[in-house]
Amino acid sequence: MFNHHDITRNAFMLKGPLAQHGYDWWWHSFTAQDAETGEDKPFFVEFFICNPALAEDAPVLGQLPENKAAGKRPSYLMVKAGCWGTEHVQLHRFFSLKNVRLHGEAPYEIEAEDCFASETVLKGSILIAPEEAAAHPEWMCDAGTLSWDLSIDKQIAFNVGYGASKPMRGAEAFQMYWHAEGMKSAFSGTVTLNGRRYTVTPEKSFGYADKNWGRDFTSPWVWLSSNCLVSKTTGKRLENSVFDIGGGRPKVFFVPLDRRLLGVMYYEGREFDFNFSHLWLNVKTEFSFEEREDVVVWHVRQENREAAMETEIFCNKSEMLLVNYESPDGMKRHNRLFNGGTGYGTVRLYEKKDGALVLLDEIEATHIGCEYGEYDGEE
Questions:
Q1: Residue 90's CB: how many other CB atoms inside 10 A?
Q2: What dihedral angle (degrees, nearest 10) is formed by the CA atoms of 56, 62, 64, 65?
Q3: Which residues partner with 207 through β-bridges?
Q4: Regarding beta strands 307-316 and 228-231, do their DSSP bridges make them parallel or antiparallel, or are they unpaired?
Q5: What is the CA radius of gyration of the chain?
Q6: What pLDDT is recorded for position 161?
Q7: Model confidence at 377, in pLDDT bands (50, 70, 90)?
Q8: If we measure between CA atoms, which residue out of 118, 122, 104 comes closest to residue 13?
């Protein structure tokens, strides 16, 4: 069921109480190739809206000391874009929500000056001078120049089911909701980073697009996904496959569920669902995260009534960002949120036959989007 697309879940969600205490973001990540050398470079673009009911004529930045002193909560559209790799960068551009055109129903559209996001198109630019970044720590970003002009073909969705359905959204049951309308997406177009041009082609973009919204984030925060997969059994690329794992410690009606993940493997047209909210599947999940000197490591083991999946992912710390967000209440609790796009590792997929696990395939995964963080002082 989770391959069912549902663009209504990609609509703007900050209505009712969430309008003054909520965030909504549309995330996109993909790989481009250097126009001169052909070398891979992974990029991300995100449109993040916070507390629209609190909009003022200028963006309200929650980390600005005078706003903290006045008890002002953040309110803005933040266009966040950047890249991973040894020369990584995250750039933020802020707009007052009074100056944003928002088509709130499905299919969604967001437009502010030259920045535009929809189900199929992504355009924009950010220019941050070094002296500006240094003078404005409340921007929470680096310096650099990035522009993009992209089209998106969202091919396979991960629909988490009832947990993000209209009744649960209406009840504001969860602190953080998730929907991956394009967990396997083909991007095409161009990106220019600090004057250097990159081309994006569908077959080499290994693209991903999802959405989170709610009152607050989760801790721990886990995300792992890739559709650049090669079968170690046959040696062939899996053209119609993708995995996606996310979650951490979701809160339902303010009560934390201990260390739960939502996961899926779409394997050459077959669906393997490891979604804890689907009680009939009897999903069991174990996961760990380890920070070593040079790399970070995720281990995830998921099992349901019919299958099991073991995932081991690595990412070089030198190629990752510590990604920055502030919560709708103005606090910045995630200060070591590792975020990368060059993860690599192995996925072992098993089927259960007569009570025993039988290896269906061992899969080499690269171009993995990956994330892990815990709130300061927790765990």
A1: 23
A2: 110
A3: 185
A4: unpaired
A5: 20
A6: 55
A7: low
A8: 104
Cα dist from 239 to 73, 74, 355, whole Å: 45, 42, 30
Beta bridge partners of 196: 193
Range in 1-5, 19-23, 160-164, 306-310 with the lowest mean pLDDT: 160-164
Average pLDDT over residues 226-234: 97
Distances 85 to 46, 219, 236, 294, 339 between C-alpha atoms, Å: 18, 25, 26, 14, 11
Please state, in angstroms and rounded to a whole number, the distance separating the CA atoms of residues 264 and 270. 10
Say yes or no to pLDDT of 351 above 60: yes
CA distance 368 to 314: 9
Q: Kindly report the length of the chain.
A: 379
**Which are the contacts of 107, defined by CB distance < 8 A and separation ≥ 6?**
7, 10, 118, 119
Q: What is the mean pLDDT of residues 347-374?
A: 96
pLDDT at position 74 is: 98
- Given a cut of 70, whether residue 218 has pLDDT beyond it is yes
**CA separation, residue 249 to residues 12, 58, 253 (Å):** 24, 34, 13
The pair of three-digit structure tokens given for residue 254, joined into one six-digit string: 């303010």
Contact between 337 and 323 under an 8 Å Cβ cutoff? The reply is: yes
Contact between 42 and 342 (Cβ < 8 Å): yes
Residue 366 contacts residue 344 (beta carbons within 8 Å): yes
The structure tokens listed for 169 are 């959204």
Tokens of residue 228, six digits: 């650049």
Q: Are 112 and 124 in contact (CB under 8 A)?
A: no
